[in-house]
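Fold this sequence, please.
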Amino acid sequence: MRLDKYLKEARIVKRRTIANSLCDSGKVSVGGITKKSSYEVCVGDKISIKYGDAEISHEVVTIPYERKSKKK
Protein backbone atom coordinates (compact mmCIF):
# COMPACT_ATOMS: atom_id res chain seq x y z
CA MET A 1 0.00 0.00 0.00
CA ARG A 2 1.26 3.47 -0.85
CA LEU A 3 2.57 5.63 2.00
CA ASP A 4 0.03 8.43 1.53
CA LYS A 5 -2.84 5.95 1.39
CA TYR A 6 -1.56 4.13 4.48
CA LEU A 7 -1.41 7.36 6.48
CA LYS A 8 -5.04 8.05 5.58
CA GLU A 9 -6.34 4.50 6.13
CA ALA A 10 -4.53 4.19 9.48
CA ARG A 11 -6.18 7.52 10.43
CA ILE A 12 -2.91 9.28 11.13
CA VAL A 13 -4.02 12.12 8.84
CA LYS A 14 -7.55 13.03 7.77
CA ARG A 15 -7.15 13.22 4.01
CA ARG A 16 -4.94 11.60 1.43
CA THR A 17 -4.15 14.98 -0.14
CA ILE A 18 -2.77 16.15 3.21
CA ALA A 19 -0.65 12.99 3.47
CA ASN A 20 0.55 13.56 -0.09
CA SER A 21 1.58 17.16 0.62
CA LEU A 22 3.39 16.11 3.83
CA CYS A 23 5.38 13.53 1.86
CA ASP A 24 6.15 16.01 -0.94
CA SER A 25 7.42 18.60 1.55
CA GLY A 26 9.82 16.09 3.12
CA LYS A 27 8.12 15.88 6.51
CA VAL A 28 7.54 12.11 6.39
CA SER A 29 10.40 9.67 6.85
CA VAL A 30 10.54 5.89 7.03
CA GLY A 31 13.44 4.47 9.00
CA GLY A 32 15.04 7.91 9.13
CA ILE A 33 15.00 8.36 5.34
CA THR A 34 12.64 10.83 3.68
CA LYS A 35 10.25 8.99 1.35
CA LYS A 36 7.86 10.01 -1.42
CA SER A 37 4.12 9.35 -1.23
CA SER A 38 4.48 6.46 -3.70
CA TYR A 39 6.68 4.43 -1.30
CA GLU A 40 5.25 0.94 -0.63
CA VAL A 41 4.71 0.49 3.11
CA CYS A 42 5.77 -2.84 4.64
CA VAL A 43 5.06 -4.39 8.02
CA GLY A 44 7.77 -3.30 10.47
CA ASP A 45 8.39 0.14 8.91
CA LYS A 46 8.86 2.99 11.39
CA ILE A 47 7.22 6.17 10.11
CA SER A 48 8.01 9.62 11.52
CA ILE A 49 5.97 12.73 10.70
CA LYS A 50 7.02 16.28 11.59
CA TYR A 51 4.20 18.68 12.50
CA GLY A 52 5.75 22.05 13.31
CA ASP A 53 7.73 21.53 16.54
CA ALA A 54 6.24 18.09 17.26
CA GLU A 55 7.19 14.75 15.75
CA ILE A 56 4.88 11.74 15.59
CA SER A 57 6.32 8.24 15.38
CA HIS A 58 4.36 5.22 14.22
CA GLU A 59 5.30 1.59 13.60
CA VAL A 60 3.44 -0.42 10.97
CA VAL A 61 2.08 -3.56 12.62
CA THR A 62 -0.49 -4.51 9.98
CA ILE A 63 -1.56 -3.01 6.70
CA PRO A 64 -5.28 -2.16 6.73
CA TYR A 65 -7.56 -3.43 4.02
CA GLU A 66 -8.95 -0.94 1.54
CA ARG A 67 -12.25 0.53 2.56
CA LYS A 68 -15.26 -0.21 0.40
CA SER A 69 -17.75 2.41 -0.60
CA LYS A 70 -21.17 2.39 1.06
CA LYS A 71 -22.79 1.24 -2.17
CA LYS A 72 -20.72 -1.97 -2.20
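The chain is about 20% helix and 25% strand. The helical segments are 3-9, 16-24.
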